[in-house]
Specification:
Elements lengths: L5 E3 L5 E4 L2 E4 L5 E3 L1 H27 L23 H28 L6 H26 L4 H26 L7 E3 L3 H27 L19 H28 L4 H26 L4 H23 L2 E3 L3 H9 L6
Antiparallel strand pairs: 1-4, 2-3, 5-6
Helix pairs in contact: 1-2, 1-4, 1-8, 2-3, 3-4, 4-5, 4-8, 5-6, 5-8, 6-7, 7-8
Amino acid sequence: MYPPRWKNLSSSPVCRVDGVSRSSTTTRLIASPQTVTRLSLASFIGLALIVVSGAAVRLTGSGLGCPDWPTCYRNRLTVSTSLHPLIEFSNRMVTVFLVVVIAALVIAAHRRTVRRRDLIWLSWGLVGGVVGDAVLGGIVVYTKLNPYLVMVHMWFSLALLSLGVVLYHRSRYDYAPQARAEIVSPATRKVAWLLDGIFVLIVIAGTATTGAGPHAGGSEGQVLAKRIPVALRDIVMVHSSLGVIFLGVVAGMFLVLEGTGAPSRLRGAAKRLLIVGFAQGIIGFVQYATHLPPLLVELHVLGATSLTIGVTTFQLTQVARDKDPDYAAQRALAGSPAV
């Protein structure tokens, strides 16, 4: 039975934390595993909001709404009531919220009733990633929305989102070596890694498409941002071709998993990935045919965010973990008792 979310153990005569006896004179704030999981979920949601709100900044032409960083104006932290500064500053406030949540997560990971080194390292990874992403965002502002740096900023944000998904997933299950069961063949796992590689190429081509497109991130009256010197049609063809390959691999994977009776959780992850991938492809086709209206581009970014979550989750579900409904069944099939 887990203790409450936070528990002061100073009233206990002797307690053991991480295998170390501590007398009642030592006061420690303890976080339950559920608290770490909830904070991991909050950070994961915050990371997704960073991506989506950052796209809104770009698509509304608010990228230079706050011309300075970390303040909005040189001598002012807050913004005026103008639309573009408000949108840009709101995106920065999402970052502030995320920093607070991740700080709490780091503390909770260190104070977890059963400390796990993987959760501590992953939470600190989010700290370093968010700080680096914020600094990179400041450089983007000071370079007047350099398209190559904007691309890297997006890559970095999606990579952080993927890390947040991993942390949330691992916080929910026991990751001791004996608490896992293989649920797919080595060949299927290799295809899953191939899927990851294709998705990375899609993201690179997609951000290059945005860098060559009409949405530079600035607005009328601001400094005109540079664009990537490549024909938009050419880079769109590369991006869409990679998308078709990606969907083909996902569809093939899904059919194989269905045909071999793979665990429902893994088949569900593949199915969701296939549905989101098809929806993303349709949105991409329509937005290009309608000359990239901002609303559809924002939906496309939301789709990229969902695909990042889906691809990462699909990779994580290649094995069943303790507390996973598929775990006991796979242990039984393997001839090993559930532990």
